[in-house]
Design brief:
Elements lengths: L7 H6 L7 E7 L4 E7 L6 H7 L35 H4 L33 H11 L3 E2 L5 E3 L2 E3 L4 H13 L10 H5 E3 L10 H11 L24 E6 L4 E6 L8 E4 L2 E5 H10 L6 H11 L6 H11 L1 E3 L14 E4 L29 H4 L4 E8 L2 E8 L15 H16 L4 H6 L11
Parallel strand pairs: 5-10
Antiparallel strand pairs: 1-2, 3-4, 4-5, 6-13, 7-8, 9-14, 10-12, 11-12, 13-14
Helix pairs in contact: 4-5, 8-10, 9-10, 10-12
Length: about 450
């Protein structure tokens, strides 16, 4: 049973000041509830494994939303000031390193720790199942849900929880007996996903999620923070594509999962508002940094913002909508909430669609991509997963096809910014290209 039904005051009144265990007994016939401290010996071993990495105050409520850009990258600007890559602008989730997660918080955004009670009633197994489902999506700030490096806006959070609960209800067995590769994960069957191995992709992702392998636990809660292939992905320079990119440090085989693309998931209409007017909601220090990037040019903070927000925008096609069956279309923003996957460039070398020699619609250029984002359903939520399309050698830069439409959508903001003399590399990556390498 999660502690969102019990106030923290009453828990601390029992003398529990940190992580611990409680026993909830329902007394018949009056159905009065008795809450007592429990010893670890009373707790099933499986429950101990699920909770071994929890913290009493794991997360504090934070004011976050589509209209509020929060800088959590160690003091670096949302525009990636002196960080060497997009990750400074989009690696807010990197601070959440633990795989252990709290239970679903209430819509108020509080993250009260969910200690599973060793109940004396016949409802213990049902409570455990509910708790396991809740552990798949954890509370963020202001009613948000965070799972696998994705933060779901409060408007989508109830649907995210419902989708996971419905999946669990339809599973037909306890989560610990559900095979991670076959039962808990499902690779999409359309587009690029058809070219990949379902078995390999699902197995590799299950391992990254901590569900599969020698140290895996099939009924473990999904991680809240970033999911990337640790130690293999490294930021690199790329002057021809804005200054930065992402390369691999080890050989990567086809079908290898490189990570889940992190970001903030919001309704498409909110995403449009965020793109056009989000600069008005920035904290003063972020707005000041946007102004600093535009200083000495004919551009202003509005011009800088629209290019920045557009560059970190990731529209989600129908098969990649995280909440299938909803009439609301969602969109992903990697700005302020992304991870290393935000650094992956497009293979096109001249995607400025306002120039006659552009390669925006070139199939030959797009075909040079060595990885792709594909939809994988994980416990009821569809996640955008970055997967290798072919074998990739150490030192080779990762490239994925953004799609011609994405470049056409960005073109207006990009053209205006360059016309007004804005240093795009400095805006996107916090770096400044030498004058000789800038696009005139």
């Amino acid at each position: 049973m999660a502690l969102d039904t019990v106030t923290r005051v009453s828990v601390q009144g029992l003398g529990l000041q940190g992580p611990g265990w409680l026993r909830l007994s329902v007394l018949q016939p009056g159905c009065e509830a008795l809450l007592e401290l429990a010893s670890e010996d009373e707790v099933p071993a499986g429950r101990l494994l699920l909770r071994q990495r929890r913290h009493w105050d794991q997360a504090q409520p934070r004011r976050r939303g589509a209209g509020h850009l929060e800088d959590k990258s160690g003091g670096k600007a949302a525009a990636g000031e002196e960080s060497g890559g997009k990750e400074a602008a989009s690696s807010s989730d990197m601070e959440t390193g633990d795989r252990g997660t709290a239970d679903v918080a209430s819509d108020s955004g509080s993250d009260d720790e969910g200690g599973a009670a060793a109940s004396d009633t016949d409802n213990d197994s049902e409570a455990d199942s509910d708790d396991e489902a809740a552990g798949a999506a954890t509370g963020g700030g202001m009613g948000e849900v965070r799972v696998c490096g994705l933060t779901f806006d409060a408007a989508l959070a109830p649907a995210a929880r419902s989708a996971q609960a419905a999946w669990l209800a339809g599973l037909g067995r306890e989560l610990r007996y559900a095979d991670p590769t076959r039962d808990q994960l499902a690779l999409g069957l359309s587009g690029t996903a058809k070219q990949l191995s379902r078995a390999v992709v699902c197995n590799k992702l299950a391992r990254l999620l901590g569900l599969e392998g020698d140290d895996g636990c099939p009924d473990a809660p999904l991680p809240e923070g970033p999911v990337v292939l640790e130690g293999v992905l490294r930021p690199c320079g790329d002057p021809s594509r804005g200054g930065a990119g992402l390369q691999v440090a080890e050989p990567i085989r086809r079908n290898e999962v490189l990570g889940v693309v992190g970001g903030y998931v919001m309704p498409a209409d909110a995403a449009r508002d965020f793109l056009s007017t989000g600069h008005k909601e920035c904290r003063p220090e972020i707005a000041a940094r946007l102004t600093a990037v535009a200083e000495g040019t004919r551009a202003d903070a509005v011009t800088a913002w629209r290019l920045l927000a557009g560059a970190f925008r990731m529209p989600l096609p129908a098969d990649m909508q995280p909440l299938q069956g909803l009439p609301v279309t969602a969109e992903l923003s990697m700005l302020g909430y992304g991870n290393l996957a935000a650094l992956v460039n497009d293979p096109r070398v001249n995607p400025r669609d306002w120039r006659a020699e552009n390669d925006v619609d070139s199939q030959e250029a797009a075909a040079k991509a060595n990885c792709a984002v594909v939809p994988v359903c994980v416990r009821g939520l569809v996640l955008p997963v970055l997967v290798a399309l072919r074998d990739i050698a150490p030192g080779e830069q990762l490239m994925r096809n953004y799609g011609a439409d994405w470049w056409h959508d960005l073109a207006d903001a990009w053209e205006v910014a360059e016309h007004d003399g804005l240093d795009v590399a400095r805006l996107l990556h916090g770096t400044q290209l030498p004058p000789a390498e800038r696009v005139p």
